[in-house]
Design a protein that fits this description.
Radius of gyration: 18 Å
Strand content: 5-15%
CATH class: Alpha Beta
CATH architecture: 3-Layer(aba) Sandwich
Number of strands: 8
Order of helices and strands: EHEHEHEEHEHEHEHH
């Protein structure tokens, strides 16, 4: 049965009449999102965060591949975290929901996405993007990046930056869809590396893998011999994002 947990409404309407009051209540709302989401998600490890377009419809090849990846991950023992919305987020939750492990939806309250998809075993609603983004990072043992638009590109950039700068532990970052991502990868190699914006080895933070079975295998291979639990040092990093 789907478990839904909504962030409580903490903003006093009267407080919104003053700037100081508005900011104080907003800070309390942000703190509530962090605290409640952390409590709700603390038992879901190991987990894989999957990102992708909200605009892809069922029947599209990307949708089917996302379902297949999520189902394999779920049956392999990974909770699957998605944005909880439509499109490839829904496909990820749907695939995981059909498997052995929980489908997690981190829903953002947007005018274009008024409710989460129906395939969430655990659901948390967020008002603030950055609180939601932290939960994607904090609980993930791997990232799977599917084709998407600005939001997906933002999430890819976020996780690459956190790992590159050492603010987050190094974990697999897997891009799915060679035809979709190859141009961007080539551009990064040409411009980012070629003009000294990043180190050449930074490109190795990402893997481009298309086959669902190979994605699961790559994640297990990364953790071979060390296990999925974060080390003490890695836990410290995650507390200081």
């Amino acid at each position: 049965m789907r478990q839904t947990h909504k962030i409580p409404e903490l903003i006093d309407p009267q407080a919104l009449n003053t700037t100081n009051g508005q900011e104080a209540w907003r800070v309390m709302g942000i703190m509530a999102e962090f605290a409640i989401a952390t409590e709700r998600l603390r038992g879901i490890r190991p987990a894989v965060s999957m990102f992708g377009s909200a605009r892809i419809k069922p029947g599209h090849a990307y949708y089917k591949k996302t379902q297949d990846i999520a189902r394999l991950l779920s049956d392999a023992g990974f909770s699957v975290i998605s944005g909880g919305g439509p499109g490839l987020m829904e496909a990820a939750n749907q695939g995981a929901h059909a498997g052995r492990s929980p489908a997690i939806g981190l829903n953002i309250l947007l005018p274009s996405e008024l409710s989460g998809n129906p395939y969430q075993d655990v659901s948390v609603d967020f008002r603030y993007f950055f609180a939601r983004k932290m939960m994607f990072v904090r609980f993930a043992s791997a990232y799977v990046i599917l084709p998407g638009g600005f939001g997906t590109l933002d999430e890819l950039g976020e996780v690459l930056t956190l790992v590159q700068t050492g603010k987050s532990r190094k974990i697999p970052i897997i891009l799915v869809g060679g035809d979709f991502w190859r141009g961007l990868i080539d551009w990064m190699q040409d411009k980012f590396v070629g003009e000294g914006m990043i180190n050449a080895e930074d490109m190795q933070l990402m893997q481009l893998i298309d086959e669902p079975e190979a994605i699961v295998e790559a994640i297990f291979k990364f953790y071979e011999g060390r296990g999925f639990a974060p080390t003490r040092v890695e836990r410290e990093k995650m507390l200081n994002l």
